[in-house]
Amino acid sequence: MIKAMILGTGLTMSAWAIAADNPLSVHVLNLQTGLPSPDIAVVLEQQNQKGQWVKLNEKITNENGRISELYPDNKKLQQGIYRVTFKTGDWFKKHNENSFFPEVPVIFNVDGTVKHYHIPLLLSPYGYSTYRGN
Length: 134
Known about the structure:
Number of strands: 9
Number of helices: 3
Distance between the termini: 22 Å
Shape: globular
Helix content: 10-25%
Radius of gyration: 15 Å
Structural class: alpha+beta
């Protein structure tokens, strides 16, 4: 049963194990269509002690609108301030749609109280919503 559920997500057993170890994932859904938003570039940055943003990773959402492993594999999750920026303007242009927001930055605090942080983005051309998921 569990194997069938994992395979239904499009992950292999080994990919599932790796994703389960990664402390950060994102998911983008298009509110207008109710469908996932594949091929959105997502940038992860961490704020350093001087208040500057340092790029840690950049990936593209898959066919399900997800990135299950956004945090770099070779780094341990540290407490601090992070920013995930969804490059939504580029995505809407590719789909011949106008959009008010060229990108959606989500700034969040990693306080170490949970092992995994998930950031869903509900997206439309003229609005968006996000929250701390699980």
